[in-house]
Q: What sequence folds into this?
């Protein structure tokens, strides 16, 4: 049986990945970790093994891996694109020093690693539509710079030390259990909360800003399927484009309106996040993921919207 460590376990993805993997591998075999004192009092921490862990603390990371005999790390601890522009140095410390620590610990303890990358690896010079798996990557956000550097570092550790490192380039993630923190695609989550609570939403991106999205059940399934895929079949291993829904704020609002007819959207553009969004692809080509390990998302725009409104509606009652 696997022994898994999840870093950044209280974030948007971790909050749902922890119970998902505990269901699969057994609660005792999935160790969640977070860096804030208050993380100890969360459901994720109370329902199974939990360690306080600051990812920039290399010794503590090695101690946790050693103590729990970890063989697989889902390394989710990361700062996102908008937060990164506020404090590039803090982003570099968490995203790059943190990843470097994980790779070094994985080398010592021979762990497999899941590393989530992002559409942020692409920049204004990348093809805008159906951006290919392998193409020019010159990102202009510090977050994108860290993710493209992270992908290269993971490749290096695979070829130099033979570590089994796999990863996905996530587009915006839509989910109902935990809010995203400090991303450019956060509008696609906030819109649901405000639609349910207030019947209206003020969006910080322009109405026709196109960015791909993916719904949490597909995020979880994708990560697990990639980690369990036959390594012989993986040509790209680390950093597969994945996508499910190509959407703009205007299209998403129209879909929500089908369920909440009085719903209204208006716009108050945040120049920082708009500039980041403008530098990213409109849509991704995820055919390499489909071909090499059978990526097949279940949720399109209509199904995701229906499910989000139902699940979140219950939660916010
Ligand atoms: C962000 O908006 O920063 C993230 C991402 C696309 O990686 N959600």
A:
């Amino acid at each position: 049986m696997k022994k898994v460590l999840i870093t950044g376990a209280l974030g948007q993805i971790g909050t749902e990945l922890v119970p998902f993997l505990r269901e699969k591998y057994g609660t005792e075999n999935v160790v969640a970790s977070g860096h804030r004192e208050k993380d100890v009092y969360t459901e994720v921490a109370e329902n199974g093994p939990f360690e306080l862990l600051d990812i920039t603390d290399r010794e503590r990371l090695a101690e946790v891996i050693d103590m729990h005999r970890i063989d697989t790390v889902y390394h989710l601890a990361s700062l996102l694109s908008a937060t990164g522009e506020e404090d590039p140095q803090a982003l570099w410390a968490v995203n790059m020093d943190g990843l470097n620590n994980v790779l070094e610990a994985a080398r010592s303890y021979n762990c497999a690693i899941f590393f989530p990358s992002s559409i942020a690896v692409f920049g204004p010079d990348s093809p805008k539509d159906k951006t290919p798996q392998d193409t020019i990557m010159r990102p202009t956000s510090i977050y994108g710079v860290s993710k493209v550097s992270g992908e290269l570092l993971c490749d290096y550790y695979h070829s130099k030390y033979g570590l089994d490192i796999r990863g996905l380039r996530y587009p915006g993630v839509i989910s109902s259990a935990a809010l995203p923190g400090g991303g450019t695609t956060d509008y696609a989550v906030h819109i649901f909360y405000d639609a349910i609570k207030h019947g209206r939403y003020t969006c910080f991106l322009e109405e026709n800003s196109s960015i791909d999205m993916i719904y949490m059940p597909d995020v979880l399934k994708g990560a697990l399927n990639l980690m369990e895929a036959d390594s012989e079949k993986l040509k790209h291993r680390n950093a597969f484009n994945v996508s499910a829904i190509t959407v703009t704020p205007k299209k998403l609002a129209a879909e929500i309106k089908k369920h909440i007819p009085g719903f209204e959207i208006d716009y108050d553009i945040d120049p920082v996040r708009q500039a980041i969004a403008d530098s990213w692809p409109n849509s991704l080509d995820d055919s390499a993921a489909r071909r090499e390990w059978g990526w097949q998302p279940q949720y399109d725009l209509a199904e995701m919207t229906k499910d989000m409104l139902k699940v979140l509606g219950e939660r916010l009652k």
